[in-house]
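Lecture notes, continued. The same structure-token format from the folding unit now serves as the input rather than the output. Read the line below as a description of shape only.
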């Protein structure tokens, strides 16, 4: 067994001082949850409005999903795009995709304004396919996105000239892909496994979202000492919504705010009481399904970064993904961190996720088997001494992020739901919440609370 040992948490500052809630406090806006969603929401509210903000975190900054993820940045929704089109229509679905893609500009703005120096790279990543089901799903997504007027600059799709379903793809998606040799696909995917016969190319980034959140948080505390307060080890157990304000119960003390924003993964035991006479389910977190993702990483002195590729052999099983990026390994200086993820399990029967639960051997074995199949035994042996960690992803019912005002009481707002790829949606959600709080009205969106 291994401990839950995240390389992102390893990089955080050990001398940063935490402040807890020691008396009753009040502010214009109270934000619950100090992961990348909470930090981004605080950033845009403080930068784009004159409102005061209190950020409350039940444990430590960025030590939840933000500190236990894969560190991948991409404008991608885990839900099949066609199903989003079927539910909301092509225009709204494409507007949702376009909104997430604005996250690229927003994250760069945050990085620059906060004066961050942590490694952050953007490049072209890949997704390799062995079967037509998942490949066709991605081809259909590209087709629909282009039909809706979005033409992503770096999107491309390759199918091998020896692919058994090449003719079917030509009939179903004429002109939507290039025919190349399988050797080109395997080289791009950096694998010798000849089961892969198709490949999608898209823009991707790599960043330590925990270090990113920590850096932005430090910037906000320094720039807005009169309008921003941040409390760690301050769990909120109850939120009472009044007619014109919210009361947050933090045990010995309370926070009063004109508005409250939930920036959690949906699994905190927060009860919501609506005293305005409207019915809001006080146990809203039961609407979110949990998935625990397992990851591993090894550090080397090679400079084979940046790199990203996801690999799908069976569309009914979670895909694996690999990234290589620059990593600060303390006294030994910058190295290459190779991360692998893929194994996951559903959180059964509303069980509580235990952050410090030991890393299971079967997840480690799945990662090692994948490495062996994809890259060979020599690479697999590197994972004998490495980082191993897990994190909780919260999936909303419709598998889309929840961004906006609670329809039954606008005192409550949401920026929650990881849904697998959460960095850009979290940042876009933070920007949109700030715009809503400044009085801007938005057209209906696929992310609206229902």
């Amino acid at each position: 067994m291994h401990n839950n040992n995240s390389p992102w948490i390893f990089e955080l500052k050990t001398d940063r001082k935490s402040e807890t809630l020691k008396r009753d406090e009040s502010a214009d806006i109270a934000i619950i949850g100090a992961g990348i969603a909470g930090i981004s929401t605080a950033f845009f509210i403080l930068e784009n409005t004159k409102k005061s903000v209190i950020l409350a975190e039940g444990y430590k900054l960025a030590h939840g999903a933000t500190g236990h993820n894969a560190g991948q940045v991409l404008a991608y929704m885990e839900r099949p795009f066609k199903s989003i089109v079927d539910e909301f229509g092509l225009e709204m679905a494409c507007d949702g995709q376009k909104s997430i893609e604005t996250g690229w500009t927003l994250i760069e703005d945050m990085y620059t304004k906060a004066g961050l120096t942590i490694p952050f790279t953007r490049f072209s990543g890949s997704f390799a396919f062995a079967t037509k089901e998942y490949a066709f799903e991605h081809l259909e997504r590209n087709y629909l996105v282009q039909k809706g007027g979005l033409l992503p600059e770096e999107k491309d799709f390759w199918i091998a000239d020896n692919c058994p379903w090449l003719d079917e793809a030509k009939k179903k998606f004429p002109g939507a892909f290039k025919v190349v040799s399988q050797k080109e696909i395997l080289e791009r995917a950096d694998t010798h496994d000849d089961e892969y016969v198709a490949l999608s190319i898209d823009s991707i980034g790599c960043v330590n979202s925990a270090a990113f959140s920590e850096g932005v948080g430090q910037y906000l505390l320094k720039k807005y000492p009169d309008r921003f307060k941040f409390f760690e080890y301050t769990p909120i157990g109850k939120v009472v919504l009044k007619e014109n304000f919210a009361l947050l119960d933090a045990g010995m003390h309370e926070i009063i705010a004109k508005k409250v924003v939930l920036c959690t993964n949906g699994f905190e035991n927060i009860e919501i009481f609506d005293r305005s006479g409207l019915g809001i389910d006080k146990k809203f977190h039961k609407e979110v399904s949990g998935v625990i993702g397992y990851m591993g990483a090894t550090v080397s002195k090679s400079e084979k970064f940046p790199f990203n590729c996801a690999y799908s052999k069976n569309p009914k099983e979670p895909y694996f993904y690999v990234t290589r990026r620059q990593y600060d390994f303390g006294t030994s200086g910058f190295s290459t961190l190779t991360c692998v993820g893929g194994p996951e399990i559903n959180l059964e029967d509303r069980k509580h996720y235990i952050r410090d639960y030991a890393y299971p051997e079967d997840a480690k074995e799945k990662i090692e088997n994948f490495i062996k199949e994809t890259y060979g035994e020599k690479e697999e042996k590197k994972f004998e001494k490495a980082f191993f960690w897990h994190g909780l992803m919260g999936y909303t019912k419709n598998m889309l992020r929840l961004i906006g005002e609670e329809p039954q009481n606008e005192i409550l707002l949401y920026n929650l739901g990881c849904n697998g790829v959460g960095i850009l949606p979290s940042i876009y959600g933070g920007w949109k919440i700030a715009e809503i709080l400044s009085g801007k009205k938005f057209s209906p969106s696929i992310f609206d609370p229902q």
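Point for the exam: The longest strand covers residues 334-346.
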